[in-house]
Recover the amino acids of this structure.
């Protein structure tokens, strides 16, 4: 077996058919196998295993501690192979490893965060009761101890009704005590529940939470090329928790009132930005430093759908002027049941659908006229995430835009795929002309 080529050994070790025990046994058959297999076996570590990974078993504190300690003893001697790390802070996990308390990080979590200096990708998920102070401390530790980190995903879902109280006290404290060494290229932050739940009610505690999160990342976003900030409910309501026109947010940018100045998100090297919360197109962007948007080529945003007449394309185009070199624009709408409000499944469905599509063509034409570099406009009308309307922008010698539908939908449940099979057609100033 020592004659096996490296490609075949890598395929065997990386196969999902083999269990972790089988892969480890195979890697120990010879030194040749071990040198090739170890970087694959120890590449990714999941700190908190979900309980459904062991169906039918009931874990006591000692049982779970033994499983996690066994994994730590296997990974720590091989920490220079670990490149991906996923840390989950859920209520049951914290109650076991934080001495039956769920208000601070357990010793095992801190040990994992401080180890593995060569990690390039980290996902930190707080689905439970860890309070804001400890969660920010974990982020600060990651940014200060991971020089090779290039991709970071943070999920903050606080479900404990007592967990939001410390945020008000954090406004006057320094959230980060160590210098940043990480050079992140991709930053994905998803905030949910009580962190910004009261933002919709204009509560100052939510502003303090967002402000401290920005403060932790101060100096850590200088190399970010892809940035995503999501603070939007993904349930049936589709109500965002964060708004660009929030009173505390606007006053902080103008240094008015008793609100401390906001440190902003500074993204000097960003080429792709996604702002997944309310009020982005209808209001000027104030939460992100717009002076460094010259390099942005792709912009994604979320729009709370009310009705087709509520969208002001002229105002949206005016706010998009902060992106002078924008090439792709993706707008998401959670239309829900309103998606097929005016559509029937009768013999006139094809024409009705194209009239419906024409609404988006007119909007897109206005945006394409105002944004001279736009080459693709996509509308994601979310209904089970399977409806998309996309227009390619072509310009004549006078830079006047002409829209061409490049892909409309993939909706088998409505049995109208014969429409999608037709040749693409063009839109000229909001009207339809066959190509």
């Amino acid at each position: 077996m020592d004659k096996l080529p490296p490609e075949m050994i890598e395929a065997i070790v990386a196969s999902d058919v083999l269990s972790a025990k089988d892969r480890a046994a195979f890697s120990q058959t010879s030194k040749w196998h071990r040198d090739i297999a170890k970087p694959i076996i120890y590449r990714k570590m999941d700190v908190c295993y979900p309980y459904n990974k062991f169906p039918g078993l009931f874990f006591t504190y000692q049982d779970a501690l033994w499983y996690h300690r066994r994994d730590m003893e296997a990974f720590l001697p091989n920490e220079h192979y670990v490149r991906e790390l996923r840390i989950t802070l859920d209520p049951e996990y914290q109650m076991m490893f934080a001495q039956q308390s769920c208000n601070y990080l357990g010793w095992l979590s801190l040990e994992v965060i401080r180890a593995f200096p060569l990690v390039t990708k980290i996902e930190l998920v707080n689905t439970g009761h860890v309070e804001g102070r400890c969660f920010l401390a974990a982020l600060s530790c990651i940014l200060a101890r991971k020089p090779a980190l290039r991709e970071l995903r943070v999920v903050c879902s606080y479900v404990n009704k007592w967990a939001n109280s410390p945020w008000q006290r954090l406004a006057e404290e320094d959230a980060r005590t160590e210098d940043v060494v990480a050079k992140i290229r991709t930053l994905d932050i998803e905030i949910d529940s009580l962190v910004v739940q009261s933002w919709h009610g204009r509560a100052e505690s939510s502003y303090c939470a967002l402000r401290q999160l920005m403060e932790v990342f101060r100096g850590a976003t200088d190399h970010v090329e892809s940035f995503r900030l999501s603070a939007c409910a993904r349930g049936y309501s589709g109500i965002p928790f964060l708004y660009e026109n929030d009173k505390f947010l606007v006053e902080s940018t103008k240094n008015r009132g008793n609100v401390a100045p906001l440190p902003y998100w500074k993204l000097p090297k960003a080429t792709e930005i996604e702002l997944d919360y309310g009020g982005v197109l209808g209001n000027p962007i104030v939460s992100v430093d717009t002076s460094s948007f010259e390099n942005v080529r792709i912009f994604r945003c979320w729009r709370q759908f009310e009705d087709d007449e509520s969208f002001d394309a002229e105002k949206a185009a005016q706010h998009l002027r902060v992106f002078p070199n924008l090439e792709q624009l993706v707008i998401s709408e959670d239309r829900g049941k309103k998606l097929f409000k005016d559509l029937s499944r009768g013999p006139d469905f094809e024409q009705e659908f194209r009239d419906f599509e024409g609404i988006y063509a007119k909007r897109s034409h206005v945006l394409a006229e105002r944004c001279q570099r736009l080459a693709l406009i996509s509308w994601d009308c979310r209904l089970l995430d399977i409806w998309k309307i996309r227009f390619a922008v072509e310009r004549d010698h006078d830079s006047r835009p002409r829209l061409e539908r490049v892909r409309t939908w993939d909706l088998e449940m409505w049995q109208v795929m014969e429409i999608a099979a037709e040749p693409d057609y063009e839109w000229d100033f909001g009207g339809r002309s066959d190509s």
Summary: The longest strand covers residues 387-395.
